[in-house]
Every structure is written in structure tokens, then in C-alpha cells.
């Protein structure tokens, strides 16, 4: 930690030195240019400086301002924190340029305005360098550009948009004139046609319908031919220049209470009751601290010498009965040398998302993947960063608050990131949890275009999307290797300097992993394993959630790559051990009560999850959708050929089959132990036995527990393979 702090301080000092050097060279460039152009107004020091330069370097001295300017640009580009202070610099330049503009206005337009000391001293510089009128135009353009940059307005986009609208208005007016002439000509044709029809009717009344219909058809054809076809103009908007606004905080409901119990007498009474209950079982304790929270109150106890923590854990049920609560959790707190007993409050307080988003922890977090999970047992907001996890595993029984927790995670990211900065790939096999997000511009699916991206509900579509996401990951690694960067942050910083398209983060959320593992376990497990191992550096993060945290759903391969775990209430100790590698989740009280195990920590943090109602989520999504942010990204065009995959599987099976048949021919017997000894694993041996039975090389007749081997079929097959 100390090394990291020292390294950070050293990095900050280097950044400050770079910024100061860049500003110094910029000032030197301007002052030297000022001395060369307005020598009479630069004072004694300026004239002396000019005389020395001209005597030493001669006419070459006029290159000096450009050299200073080049060094200023170099140091500005190397400094990364200058972007955070660019608004202050722009405001200073804006004041200076307006002062000079007022001074030009006083001399050029003869208006009673003044630019002050700054304007009167800088006016001769621009006048001598550009002339009066041209200098006035140059200063006005500089002032306009600085104001546009300060207000985040793109002049190029505004001018292009104005020209497009002007062209469209001209085309519409020309079309209206042409259409008016066509209508006038058509009226004349109709009048002549009507007279001809009347004459024909007087002569041949019986053929009137045929003549009239024929003439109308000819008129319609003429209208279709003569009428100009005006194609609608599709305006493509750049998402980077779109003025996107993050959702305001007032769309969320304010917290109803402060999140703590105000009745101190009740807290002291319960502490005495807890102390008396433990004394009845021969456990002598002293209450050191009482830490009230929104749902849980923690009592820190100092155990008497010789009493073990396991002794307190063994009487949890008796403590719950005496305290009249559903569940109690005992947690050791080594830093305080006490044992914490977490007791549910008699009256709970709902933890809202707004209170956490308004906290300084969330506001000061610069990560686009900041998650507002909930509040701790002492009522403080808990904020973490998904990019540092880098993946999250969520488990919890039905009704424990898992779905609300997923909504909280999604909404907290929506409050931080633009649609072109973070994308969501949402997989919802249940089809009922995430349909409210189907129209947000943050959706991503590598299989389809951006405008067609939707919630993925079909397991086969989920497999295809995850496989193509692996291809996206590999393409990003190739791109990062060309730029010689290690992660997405370095790549985006480098692209912002040299110019180019930044990469967005991709957050994959699978709401019910158990259903996918039941249908397509092999395919989805392979994709998840590859993404979990390698996708962090390229900005792809996984969030897996399941109601059933069993070993066949959360396999060892998945657990090994998900160091961050989030567990709501589970139904048994076994499920708690699967998700957290320890017991404790079975003692939670549900309704958002959770245990969060950060990466690298040995002890989980107990949190009360933030609650977000469906109406609040709909308001936020409606605010985002009303902005009509352009949905643009390039889909993956690589198709997964099922025929090729079947051929690959068949080739793999044949590769194991031939050595197995040769082994059986040599040993004249077959068993799983024999195959395991030669092929290395029980799973591989079982697969080979299944293949042999399917192909008909071995069989087990009814009532016989021994494999029957068809040696003739094996010998014929091996001869055919050798030929």
C-alpha cells in the first residue's frame, strides 16, 4: 500500500511538472512573438532581449517563438491530467480574447467599449501581425472557437447540420414548384379529356365506361411517370458528438429515514438481554460497542479469557430464541479483538438507491463501472468497482433480493456511463426480469446490428452470442497489440491523443445461469471460461447470477475465475459454501440482506442491498430513451458453422476411438479402469465406453454385468482405417 501511495504521489508530481513546463513554453512562445512584432511597446527588457537575439542569431531569431510553441504542444500531449483543468484554461483565454475583441471594436467600429489593460496591450500585437480588419476577424474567430469549446458545442457539426437543412429546404421548395406545375398541367388534361368523353358519350353511349376507365388509367400512368421521386434523406448522427445527458438524481425516491435506530433505550435493553442470555450458558462477555444499521444491529462483545468463538456459535439458536429474532450471525472481528453478533432490528428501514448515489464515495469514483451495492451494518453507503473485480458471481434463493440487486447494478452504471462508453449484453432465460431494458441504447449483441439488439432469451442464441463475444475479445487483443497497450484504459487514452475510435466496455449479465447450464452446459461453460480468464484487459466483464448455487452449476472452472462473490440468503450451508467457500449466507434474513466477498479479501462484508422500484427504473429508462441516442456499433459477421463443429467433434471422437480399439484387441478385455489407466482420466474413459457402445463394438446383454466384445467388428474396422 505504501509503495502504491508513493508511486501515485510520484506520478502526480511528474504530471504537475509536465503541466507547468507546458504552460511555461506557451507563455515563452507568446512573449517572444510579442517582442518581435510590437518592439516599441515591450519596454526596456523586451527591447534589450530583442537586441541580444538579433545580434547573436540575426534573422534566425524569428524561429524562436515556433520552437517554444512546439515544446509546449509536446508537454501538453504528454500530460494526462491537463484535461481535467482545461475548462479553467479556456475560461482565462475566453476573457483575454473578449478583451482584445472589445479593443478592436473600439477602433474599428467606433463603439464606446474598452478592453482594459489586457486589450490595450494585446491590440497592437494583432494589429501589426494581421492588420486592422483581418486582425479583427481573426480575434473574433478565436473568441468564437474558445466559447464553443468551453460550452462543448461542435462548430463543424453545427455548420454541417445547417447546410444539410438548407439543402433540404431548397429541394423541398423545388419539388413543390414542380408538383404545382404538374397539377396545373394535369387540370388542363383532365378538362380536355372530360370534353372528349362527353362527345363520345353522345355518339356511342354503350362504350362510355371503357373509354373513361382507359383514359383514367392513362392519366394515372402519366402522373406516375412525370411525378418526381423524392427520396427521404436519412441523417446519420455521430454518437461521439451527441449531447447525451446522464439521468438526474431526482428520478429516484428519497430515503425515508436516516437508516439507523433512534431509540437508544431499546438498544441498551437488547444488549443487556444478549449479555444475560450468554451468561446463562456460562459465557461471560462485556459489550464494547453497539453499531446500529438500517436492518441489522451489531453488538461487539469482548469474551472472557478461555472462551472460544465456537462456544458462542454453538448457542446461536438459543440466542435467537431469547432475542425473538429469526436468525443471528456470529462474526469475528480481528482488528478490534471482539466477536460481533449481528441481530436483526425490530423495525427495518428501506435502503434507497438515491442515498448511495448522492454519497461522496459514488460521486468521487471516476470509473464508468462503479456499482452502488447497498449500505453496511453501520449505515454507510458501500460502493465498489466492477473493473477491479473483474467479474462477479451472484447467488441467492427465491425472494432473497437477487433480481433487485441486478437492477441496482445496471442502474448504477447507467448513472455513470454514456451508451457509447458502456454496453450491456443481457441474457435472461426467464424472460420476465429484464424486458424493461429492451429499448435502451446501451444494449449490445455481437450477432446483430445495433438497432436490432435486444434481450437474449433463447439458450442457443446465448451460446452463439457468447462465442462471438470471444471473437470480439480476440480482435480487441490484436488491436491493442498494434498500439502496444496493455488494457482498454491505455488504449482509449492513446486513441484520444492520436485520434481514432475508442472502445466501449461490455458488461455481460446472465440472470439465471442454472437454466443455461441445464441445456447447453458444455458450450456456455467453454465461452465463460475463456472470457473470465482473458476478457478483463479488453473491457469485457461478466456478472453471473443463479438461484441454485450447486456444484454442477457453479463449477470449479467458473469459481476459479470469479474472485468476487455476492451471496443473498441461501437455503442451506452447502449452498453457502459453494458460493462463498464458507458458511454464513444461510443466516441472512432475505429482502436484500447480502454478503459481499471482495477480491483478495478473506472475510465477506454484510450489506443491505439498495431497493429500486419498477416505477423508478421505468422513469430512468424513459429519460434515456427520449434522448434518441444513435445506436451504432459493428456486429460480428463470423458465422458459427454447425457442420464444421460436428466434423471437429467427430474427428476428436475418432482420434480416441482408434487407440481404444487397438488396446482392446491387444488386451482382449475392456473396462473403465483399463481405459482410465491408458487415457488419463475417468471422464475420458467414460466417454470412450459410451462411444464404443454406440458404435456397437461392445455391449451388455440383459442380466449380465460384463462387457461383451465384438472382436470381428473391431478387426474389420481397424483394417478399413489402415487401408
Strand order of the largest sheet: 6-5-13-12-11-7-10-9-8
Strand content: 5-15%
Question: What's the number of structural domains?
Answer: 5
CATH superfamily of the largest domain: P-loop containing nucleotide triphosphate hydrolases
Task: Determine the N-to-C terminus distance.
Answer: 67 Å
Number of helical segments with 4 or more residues = 24
Question: What distinguishing features does this structure have?
Answer:
Threonyl-tRNA Synthetase, Chain A, domain 2; alpha/beta; single chain; nine-stranded mixed β-sheet; 723 residues; four-stranded antiparallel β-sheet
Describe the fold and architecture.
The protein is α/β, with parallel strands linked by helices and 723 residues long. It folds into five domains: 14-155, no CATH class; 156-226; 264-344, Threonyl-tRNA Synthetase, Chain A, domain 2, CATH 3.30.980; 398-626, Rossmann fold (3-Layer(aba) Sandwich), CATH 3.40.50; 642-722, Winged helix-like DNA-binding domain superfamily/Winged helix DNA-binding domain (Arc Repressor Mutant, subunit A), CATH 1.10.10.10. Helix content is 54%, strand content 11%. The strands form three sheets. A nine-stranded mixed sheet has the order 6-5-13-12-11-7-10-9-8. Strand 1 and strand 2 (296-303) form a beta hairpin. Helix 4 (86-108) runs antiparallel to helix 6, helix 21 (642-667) packs across helix 24 (711-722) and helix 22 packs across helix 23 (682-695). Mean pLDDT is 77; it is low at 191-237 and 637-650.
Amino acid at each position: 500500500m505504501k509503495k502504491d501511495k508513493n508511486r501515485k504521489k510520484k506520478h502526480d508530481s511528474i504530471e504537475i511538472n509536465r503541466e507547468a513546463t507546458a504552460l511555461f513554453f506557451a507563455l515563452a512562445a507568446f512573449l517572444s512573438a510579442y517582442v518581435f512584432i510590437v518592439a516599441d511597446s515591450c519596454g526596456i527588457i523586451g527591447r534589450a532581449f530583442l537586441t541580444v537575439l538579433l545580434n547573436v542569431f540575426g534573422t534566425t531569431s524569428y524561429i524562436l517563438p515556433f520552437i517554444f510553441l512546439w515544446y509546449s504542444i509536446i508537454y501538453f500531449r504528454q500530460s494526462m491530467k491537463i484535461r481535467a483543468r482545461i475548462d479553467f484554461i479556456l475560461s482565462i483565454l475566453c476573457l483575454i480574447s473578449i478583451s482584445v475583441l472589445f479593443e478592436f471594436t473600439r477602433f474599428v467600429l467606433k463603439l464606446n467599449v474598452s478592453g482594459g489593460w489586457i486589450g490595450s496591450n494585446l491590440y497592437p500585437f494583432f494589429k501589426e501581425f494581421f492588420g486592422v480588419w483581418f486582425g479583427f476577424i481573426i480575434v473574433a474567430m478565436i473568441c468564437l472557437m474558445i466559447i464553443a469549446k468551453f460550452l462543448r458545442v461542435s462548430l463543424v457539426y453545427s455548420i454541417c447540420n445547417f447546410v444539410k437543412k438548407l439543402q433540404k429546404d431548397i429541394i423541398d421548395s423545388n419539388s413543390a414548384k414542380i408538383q404545382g406545375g404538374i397539377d396545373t398541367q394535369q387540370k388542363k388534361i383532365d378538362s380536355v379529356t372530360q370534353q372528349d368523353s362527353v362527345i363520345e358519350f353522345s355518339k356511342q353511349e354503350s362504350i362510355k365506361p371503357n373509354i373513361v376507365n382507359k383514359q383514367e388509367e392513362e392519366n394515372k400512368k402519366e402522373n406516375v411517370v412525370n411525378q418526381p421521386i423524392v427520396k427521404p434523406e436519412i441523417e446519420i448522427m455521430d454518437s461521439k458528438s451527441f449531447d447525451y445527458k446522464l439521468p438526474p438524481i431526482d428520478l429516484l425516491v428519497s430515503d425515508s429515514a436516516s437508516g439507523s435506530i433512534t431509540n437508544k433505550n431499546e438498544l441498551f435493553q437488547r444488549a443487556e438481554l444478549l449479555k444475560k442470555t450468554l451468561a446463562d450458558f456460562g459465557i461471560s462477555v462485556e459489550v464494547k460497542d453497539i453499531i446500529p444499521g438500517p436492518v441489522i444491529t451489531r453488538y461487539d462483545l469482548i469474551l472472557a479469557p478461555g472462551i472460544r468463538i465456537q462456544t458462542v456459535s454453538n448457542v446461536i439458536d438459543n440466542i435467537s430464541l431469547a432475542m425473538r429474532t429469526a436468525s443471528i450471525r456470529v462474526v469475528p472481528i480481528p482488528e478490534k479483538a471482539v466477536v460481533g453478533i449481528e441481530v436483526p432490528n425490530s423495525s427495518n428501514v428501506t435502503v434507497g438507491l438515491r442515498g448511495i448515489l448522492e454519497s461522496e464515495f459514488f460521486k468521487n469514483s471516476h470509473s464508468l463501472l462503479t456499482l452502488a451495492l447497498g449500505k453496511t451494518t453501520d449505515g454507510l453507503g458501500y460502493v465498489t468497482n466492477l473493473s477491479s473485480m473483474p467479474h462477479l458471481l451472484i447467488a441467492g434463493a427465491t425472494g432473497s433480493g437477487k433480481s433487485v440487486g441486478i437492477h441496482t447494478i445496471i442502474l448504477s452504471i447507467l448513472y455513470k456511463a454514456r451508451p457509447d462508453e458502456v454496453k450491456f449484453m443481457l441474457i435472461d432465460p426467464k424472460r420476465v426480469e429484464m424486458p424493461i431494458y429492451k429499448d435502451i441504447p446501451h444494449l449490445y449483441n455481437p450477432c446483430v446490428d445495433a438497432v436490432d439488439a435486444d434481450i437474449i432469451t433463447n439458450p442457443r442464441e446465448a451460446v452463439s452470442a457468447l462465442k462471438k463475444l470471444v471473437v470480439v475479445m480476440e480482435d480487441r487483443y490484436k488491436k491493442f497489440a498494434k498500439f502496444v497497450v496493455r488494457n482498454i484504459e491505455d488504449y482509449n487514452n492513446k486513441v484520444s491523443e492520436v485520434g481514432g475510435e475508442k472502445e466501449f466496455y461490455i458488461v455481460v449479465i446472465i440472470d439465471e445461469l442454472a437454466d443455461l447450464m441445464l441445456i447447453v452446459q458444455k458450450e456456455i461453460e467453454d465461452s465463460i471460461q475463456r472470457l473470465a480468464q482473458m476478457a478483463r484487459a479488453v473491457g469485457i466483464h461478466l456478472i453471473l447470477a443463479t438461484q441454485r448455487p450447486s456444484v454442477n452449476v457453479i463449477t470449479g472452472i467458473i469459481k476459479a475465475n470469479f474472485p468476487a462473490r455476492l451471496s443473498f440468503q441461501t437455503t442451506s450451508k452447502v449452498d453457502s459454501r459453494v458460493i462463498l467457500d464458507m458458511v454464513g449466507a444461510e443466516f441472512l434474513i432475505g429482502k436484500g440482506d447480502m454478503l459481499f466477498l471482495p477480491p483478495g479479501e478473506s472475510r465477506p462484508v454484510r450489506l443491505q442491498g439498495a431497493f429500486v422500484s419498477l416505477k423508478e427504473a421505468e422513469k430512468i429508462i424513459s429519460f434515456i430513451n427520449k434522448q434518441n441516442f444513435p445506436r451504432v456499433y459493428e456486429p460480428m459477421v463470423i458465422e458459427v458453422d454447425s457442420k464444421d463443429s460436428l466434423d471437429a467433434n467427430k474427428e476428436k471422437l475418432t482420434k480416441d476411438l482408434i487407440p481404444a480399439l487397438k488396446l482392446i484387441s491387444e488386451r482382449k478385455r475392456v473396462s473403465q479402469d483399463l481405459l482410465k489407466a491408458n487415457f488419463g482420466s475417468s471422464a475420458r474413459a467414460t466417454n470412450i465406453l459410451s462411444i464404443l457402445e454406440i458404435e456397437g463394438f461392445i455391449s451388455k446383454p440383459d442380466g449380465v454385468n460384463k462387457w461383451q466384445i465384438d472382436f470381428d467388428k473391431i478387426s474389420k474396422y481397424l483394417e478399413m482405417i489402415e487401408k
